[in-house]
Amino acid sequence: MACGIRTLRRSKQAGEPRGIYCGIGHCYECRVTVDGKSSVRACITPVADGMVVKPGPAPAEARP
Predict the structure, then answer these.
(1) pLDDT on residue 62
(2) Where in the chain are the domains?
């Protein structure tokens, strides 16, 4: 948020922007892909050096 990024993913149905809503991990609106792992809640995940964060969950074919 400090960098001005408000949209972390888009909804499947309408492509509406999604971002941090509750800030405590309950709403799941802030899901991103971290180091190849999809559906990570950005609002409760500690930041680490070298972490690769990408918008939204990974495509279905890339999920384990």
Answers:
(1) 40
(2) 9-62
